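Changelog note: in this version the structure field was regenerated for every chain. One regenerated record is shown below for reference.
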Amino acid sequence: MELFNNEVAENIEQKAILVGISFGRDDIENSMEELKNLAEAAGATVLDQLMQNRDKVDATFYIGKGKVEEIKNVAEFHGANLIIFNDELSGAQIRNLESAIEMKVIDRTALILDIFALRANSRVAKLQVELAQLKYRLPRLTGLGKSLSRLAGGIGTRGPGEQKLELDRRKIYKRVSDIQSLLREAEKDRETQKVQRKKHQMPMVALVGYTNSGKSTLMNQILEKYESEGTQVFTKNMLFATLDTSVRKITLDKNRIFLLSDTVGFVSKLPHSLIEAFKSTLEEVVDADVLVHIVDSVNEKYEHQIEVTNNVLKEIGVVDKKSIYVFNKIDLLKNEIYTKYSYIPISAKNDIGIDRLIDEISQLVFTDLKKATFVIPYNEGAILNEIMNHCETMEMKHTNDGTEITVVADIIIRGKYQKYIKL
C-alpha cells in the first residue's frame, strides 16, 4: 500500500455532503447544525445535507440502500468529494459506503479527531490526540485501508497518527503503549502540582462550556482586570481553539486567592476515545471546587449547548458540583433571555458583569472567611506580622493590652490564634 502525501491532500478543496439519521430523536436538527459547524471548522465547504428516519441501523450501510443511491446522486450533482456521517460508523460500513458511492466517507468521530489534530499544539495535547486517533482507527483498518490509499488523505486522516495507519497492528499496539507511558509521566507532573495546591489550600475554579462560548476570553479578562500572574491564553473565534488546560493564579486580595482553569470546550457526541485520552486533562474540572459554566447567549441553540455540556460533565464523573451559569456576549443581545437557569449576564470581551461574577465566586469558594478582631500583645510582633501578611486588614489601633486589629481571616488563622480573639 502506498503512503499518501498529506501536503497534496491539504490543497484539495473538500466539498462535503452531510448525512444524518433520526432514530425518533427530536434533536437531529441541532446535531446536524453542529456537524455543519464542525465540517467548516475542519476546512470543508458544506454543499448539502440529507436526513433519514429509521427504527434501527442497517448493518451494511448504516442507512437504507435507497438512501445510499440518493446520496450518490446528490453528491454527483453538487460535485462533492466527501460524505460526512453524523454518527460513528464501523470499518465495514465505511468500506461498503465508499464502494457504493465511489467517494470518500468519514463519520463524526473522525471529523472531530481531525479538528483536534489541527488544533493540538503542546506535546501532551498531540499525544492525547494521537492516542485517540489510533484507538479509533485500529478496529477500522480493514475498512479504511482501501479508501486511504485511493483518496489521498484529507479531512479525517490528518494529525500526529496519520502515517501509523500503514503499519501493522502489532506496531500500532506498540505505539499506543508508548503514548500511554508518556502520558503517565505527564500525569505524574500534574499530580505533583495537585499536591502543591492542596498543601497551600488554594481553591480551584474551572471554566466549562460549549466550544467557542468565550471561556478563554473570560479568563484573559479576569487576568488583566486583577493583574494576576501568568500569560494570557490563546483565543480565536473557532471551534476547539483551546485544547490544553491552562491554570492561572488569581489574587483578589491577601485572603482571596484561587486557581482558575480554562478547559477544552465540549460538543455533543464527543468521541469516547477523546474523552478517555483527555481524561487526565479534564481532571481539572473533576477536582474543581466551583464550575463556571459559560454560555453563548447570542446563539439561538444555547439551551441545547447547555444540555450538551452538562451531559459531558456527567460522562467524566462531575455531579453535584457547585456551579455558576454565566451568559456571555450579553452586549450583543437584542432581546431579553427567558430561561429556567439562574445566571449572571456578562460580556467577557467588554468587561461587563465581571465584578459580579467574581463576587459570586468568592461567596462560594471562600466560605470560611470571617471578620475577626485580635488583640496581640506588643511583645508578640511576629504573630501580628503573620496575621497582617495573611489577612486583609480592616482596622487597627493601639490599646493598653496591645495592638487591636480587625481582619478578614480564614479558619486556619482564627484557629491558630484563637486565644487572641477579642470576644
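Spot check on this record: The first strand starts at residue 15 and ends at 22. Residues 169-199 form the longest helix (31 residues).
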